[in-house]
Write a structure and sequence with these properties.
This protein has 90 residues and is α+β, with helices and mostly antiparallel strands. It has three helices and seven strands, in the order αβββαβββαβ. The chain has a domain of 61 residues. β5 and β6 form a beta hairpin.
């Protein structure tokens, strides 16, 4: 499927991925964010110059599971956006 179709799948709660990626087990998920805010922990507070417990508002974003098992915010490359080999996992 194309990226537009994959984007609809990920926003519906599925995991999306491409076989062309170089790492096994990599996939992307949709994080709904915290539009009303969530109390921030000490690490977030220090990073943003806030107080621990202040409400931290966050917009929705895409997150990828990387090859080493960690997670990171993700922005698709132009190759990803134009690809036709997207798949999904329920």
């Amino acid at each position: 499927m194309n990226f537009g179709q994959a984007l609809e799948k990920v926003k519906a709660g599925d995991k999306i991925f491409r076989h062309g990626w170089n790492g096994k087990g990599m996939f992307v998920v949709y994080q709904k964010g915290y539009p009303d805010g969530i109390p921030c922990n000490l690490q977030t507070a220090k990073a943003w110059g806030m107080n621990e417990g202040d409400l931290f508002k966050c917009e929705p974003y895409l997150q990828i599971k990387t090859t080493d098992g960690s997670h990171a915010m993700w922005v698709p490359s132009i190759r990803d956006v134009l690809a036709e080999d997207w798949e999904y996992i329920h």
